[in-house]
Every structure is written in structure tokens, then in C-alpha cells.
Amino acid sequence: MNAIWWMPRWQDAGIGPIAEKVLASERLSETDGVALFNVADPSLVGGLANIVRERRHGDATWFNRNQHVNATNVCEASCIFCSFARLKTGDPGAYAMTIDEAVDRVRRHRGQLITEVHIVNGLNPDLPFSYYTDLLRAIKVERPDIHIKGFTAVEIAWFAQTFGRTVRGVIEELVAAGLDSLPGGGAEIFAPRARKKLCPDKVDGPGWLDVHRTAHQMGLRSNCTMLYGSIETMAERVDHMMALRALQDETGGFQTFIPLKYHNENNRLSRLMEATDADTLRTYAVSRLMLDNIGHIKAYWPMVGLSMAQLLLEYGVDDLDGTVREERIYHMAGASTPQELTRAELVALIRRAGRTPVERDTLYGVAAEA
Ligand code: V47
């Protein structure tokens, strides 16, 4: 469907001028972002986002072969949306793997062409900093070729504070031990009103952004995220995107943006209903339209589900994560998706949605023809 078909519908919905800007590749304003969230029919926003997606990527849909390692869930932060963390060592369900147990997670997949390990942990006050550098070194001994994307900005800021180092110093030591890039977790919502309620004892928005700024200045690439569908307003979502866009203007270091839908089981926000599918469609589409300087918009299928991930390929998404072995954070929050997909299943999922799968490495080099 081309823009001539869509234009009267965009005009009826009150977003004609925004559509004109998108067609002319002009930057949208914060007010435009909020207006897009107020459009009742998500397909109108999706139609616009799809124009941008296809302009950038055509039908190509990127995916990679990765696995997750969550070495400890002991976490001294008490984020009310989190189902994964346990406050103290010894609490029911709390765990901390030995280095060998964590490396064994990687060793298990030795024969498989996994290109990335994604490491995210709790803020565990009982482990020394050397635990993390030893973990990185041991993984690289086991699989020297693998890309390690690890430690959210929240973890890095906490290491700096807890172990008396600068953020730059922490990143330098982690890189020397084998770290290759940073994941996008821990961003949640930057707006102080919502952040204070959601995660009062975690690094604040400017602190999160500063870790990524430092990493980018040091030549590392990273990802960025937004937790949506809990207590935040639409204006706070757009404010979050504006902050990421401003940092990307400065550094160019973000690779992909991943909206993360709040899951409501086994945590202190369980009274909330989860985001509707219409809200999810709109959120991804608005992300594609507002983040005009970030290359990719990624759907994390363990969280949104497989059929929604396919539909999102029409709503601005060009990137699907991944084979994702052993995901814990969402499954402890009630996600009913499988814990992993094979490469063949991912390729089939993308093809069935009418798009062209392209296997990538972590830095978006083409890994193989799918
Ligand atoms: O920061 C925690 C979120 C994030 C819940 O960089 C929850 O490629 C929903 O950041 N409901 C960690 N969300 C995961 C993450 C991530 C995932 C996939 C790819 C990448 C990447 C990064 O998970 C946390 C938080 O925002 N989270 N609990 C919950 N109940």
C-alpha cells in the first residue's frame, strides 16, 4: 500500500502533518511522538513506521544465534517490576553460579554455531569484582571466537560505586578480560517520577546514559531499551526516546532499540494489567519513527510472543532476538514463550511473515545467507 492510499487516513486521524514529515525524512518532535501515541488505530502509525523500516532495510530481517547467561539473581536493588531477583544470598530461589557452572552453560553448546553470549546479572553484594573478570576470561578460554555482550549500565555504575572505580576504569577492566559490547538493559523509564517508583535504588537516567556515553567514547557499541506498559505515561515514553536520540546524535554508538513489554507475574506490580496488543504495536511503530538515528528496532520474541513478533515486522521492526537459549528474566515473570528457538525455526518464522531473514553477528555484519 503506498503513501497516496494512506494519506487521507492519516489526515482523518489528525497526523497528516506528521506523515508529511516522515515522507520528507524530516525529524519528528516530542509533541509529534505524543500525538502518534494518541492515534486510536495502530495500523495508521504502523503504516508510517513500515515506510521507514523498508526505506532502511527493505524486507531484510536481522537475527542472530545467541545464548543468555544469568550467573546470579541475588540483587540488592528492589525494582518493583522484577520477578527474577532475590534480595539476599540464601533467600528462597536465590542463586549464584560458580565460574565453572556459568562457563558450563556455554560449554554445553560447544558444537553449535552460537556467535554471542548475553550476560546480565543481579547486583550481588557477596561477589568480588574479580568474579566478573574471571567469568569473562573463562568464557573466552572456552570459546575464543564468541562475542560477549554483557553487563547493563546499571551493573557497570554499581561496580564503579561498590568497588571504588570510575565507570571508565570498570569498562577498561571488563574489556581487558573479554567484554565486547554492552546490552541495553536497565534503562526502564528515565523520567524521575516513574523511575523513583519502579527502581528507586538503581542508577538514574543521566547515570545510565553516561555509562553508554563512556562506552561509546571508548569504541564499544551498545543497545538500548525501554520498559513499557507499567506505570509510565505516553509522554514519559517519548521523553525516554528523546534522551536516547540525543545521546545517539552525540556518539552514534547505539545499534538497536528494544522496547520491553512489562510482564506481570511474580512481582510487586502484579496488580497491573499488561499492555494491550494495540499498545505494543503502537509503541514499536512510534519507536521506529522517533529514533531516526538508530539503525535497528528489535523485537525480543520471548517477551512479546512469536506471532506478535511476526506482526511487528510490519510495524517498524527489522531485528529479532535471537535463538536466546535459557532465558530466565521473562520466564520468571510469566512469559509463556519457548525458552529457545532453533535457527531453522527463526528463519521459518521470518519467511512465513513475508520477510527475508539475514543472519548477523552482534555488530550487524552479515554472518550467513539464511
Ligand atoms: O532491564 C525485568 C526487563 C531487562 C521484567 O540488549 C522486565 O540485546 C518485563 O535488557 N517484565 C533486561 N521486563 C533484559 C534486557 C535485554 C533483553 C534482550 C536483549 C537485550 C539486548 C537486552 O528486562 C531489564 C528490565 O527492563 N525486565 N523484569 C518484567 N517483569
Could you characterize the architecture of this molecule?
By secondary structure, this protein is of the alpha/beta class. The chain folds into 2 domains: 3-53, no CATH class; 61-369, Aldolase class I (TIM Barrel), CATH 3.20.20. The chain is 43% helix and 13% strand. The protein contains 15 helices and 10 strands. The strands form 2 sheets. It has a 7-stranded mixed β-sheet with strand order 5-6-7-8-1-9-10. Strands 2-3-4 form a 3-stranded parallel β-sheet, covered by helices on one side. Strand 6 (254-261), helix 12 (277-290) and strand 7 (296-300) form a beta-alpha-beta unit. Helix 7 (153-162) crosses helix 10. The two termini are 27 Å apart. The model has no long low-confidence stretch (mean pLDDT 94). It binds ligand V47. Ligand V47 is lined by residues 81-83, 120, 183-186, 188, 223, 225, 227, 258, 260, 262-263, 267, 300, 321, 329, 333.
Give a topology summary.
Layout (H helix, E strand, L loop, with lengths): L2 H10 L3 H8 L6 H8 L4 H16 L2 E4 L2 E4 L29 H9 L8 E4 L9 H14 L4 E4 L2 H10 L4 H11 L14 H7 L6 H13 L4 E7 L5 H18 L2 E8 L15 H14 L5 E5 H4 L1 H7 L6 E3 L21 H10 L3 E5 L5 E4 L1
Parallel strand pairs: 1-8, 1-9, 2-3, 3-4, 5-6, 6-7, 7-8
Antiparallel strand pairs: 9-10
Helix pairs in contact: 1-2, 1-4, 3-11, 3-12, 4-12, 5-6, 6-8, 7-8, 7-10, 10-11
The chain binds ligand V47.
